[in-house]
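User: I want to check something. If I give you two sequences, will you return the structure for each one separately, not as a complex?

Assistant: Yes, each is folded on its own. Here is the first sequence with its structure:
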Amino acid sequence: LRFVLSNPNVTLALSGMSTLQQVEENVVTAADEISLSPEDVDAIREHVDRLAEMAKLYCTGCKYCMPCPQEVNIPYIFAMYNMGQVYGLWEIARDNYAKFPELRWVGGEQADACIECGECEEKCPQSIVISEWMPDVHGVLGEGQPYGACRMLGLG
């Protein structure tokens, strides 16, 4: 509530409340001069920066990029990458990536099978430059390179 009311462009905040205690807490918060401490601003900025890093590869899994002529399972590959990137579950993501071509219900080829034909990119509603991501994602998932090795993230 303090965050919302600290924005000079906000004149009203609707807060769902289900108890009298919540009403009283909100009245106290709204009655004070609304400002965020420098620590609050730093914490918010840090969180926004972290979210921006995670959003660099925003694949929704819509599968519009499919089918790939090389049978690269683009949505599954990006889902495994995001499992590591967003949730920090790199070990599970790498294990799933290593096994998926043999799994009948998943199937397809790994990212290193991409020949950069661009067919998928023409169909991607998120405008992901898939052919540029494939080597990096394979490097992180398939070759076990550290996350920082991705050139697409400007870190490698």
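And separately, the second sequence with its own structure:
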Amino acid sequence: MKRGIIASPAEVKLLMNGFNIASSISAAELRFYLLYWNKVFIPTNNLIHIGVPDEDLLISSGAIFRPRVALNGSFSGHEAGAAILNSQCEIAKFMSKDATTSWTFQQRGETQVLPQEFSNSRDILKIDLANILLSPSSDVEIYDVLEFKERHADQLATLHEMLDALYLEILSSADPDVKKIAVLSDLAKLINDHNKSIRKRFVSSQSFDLSAEINIKGNDALKGAFCLGALNSVIDLGMTSLAAAVIGGLASTISLSAKVGKTFKYQQPSTQLVYLSQARKEGIL
């Protein structure tokens, strides 16, 4: 199955009488998306277009898509900022019908912002993997990233499958002890091998976080373990031998937390992975 990401071009903060753009997508983040996803969608609209680095080259080469949502009527202040969020949600709602691709809904920033009509209130399990995946730095040519991606397509596909397995194994188990999860040892080896390939191919690279939020639904044992307070504190593996194996020497943590929050209403039925809330630089190697 193909992997797609529907990413926001910027972090939008809604204010009482307007909005501001707190940060926008960087060249390094674009390379991260290009490497790890088969399809990269960055929605825009006819009201406000937020450009991305190397946009013309990326679009002409087919590396990214910028689907345009047509907005009708007049917008001002707060409404204009909300329109940017709505555009991403409209595209994500439409693409969720694509059964050939597993889609990730990504927003920039520490917390997600979903318009009311696109969200549900659910029990959520949040999984953070810090400093875990390497990606070429912003000075690496786009075509070099795409060439590496094509050459290592099988490895990257397996990596996605094992990350899915990690999320779902945590979700299906009433035991919150991350160290006991069977898939971690295989995932550690795969990520370590992949990161070695990145270092060998590219002179400069940097590490990124992955942060996923998963719906907890229909699992009484899990609800008891996670939502009644047994796991409302973070489980931190720190620099254990397992974390060191996963990261290949980088400082890393794997943490879990539980909460009630808003999730994207139109997620694909085949997966319980709701969205990637952050894909942000932690450090340059």
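Because they were folded independently, the notes below concern the second chain alone. Confidence is low (pLDDT under 50) at residues 226-242, 270-285. The chain has eight helices and twelve strands.
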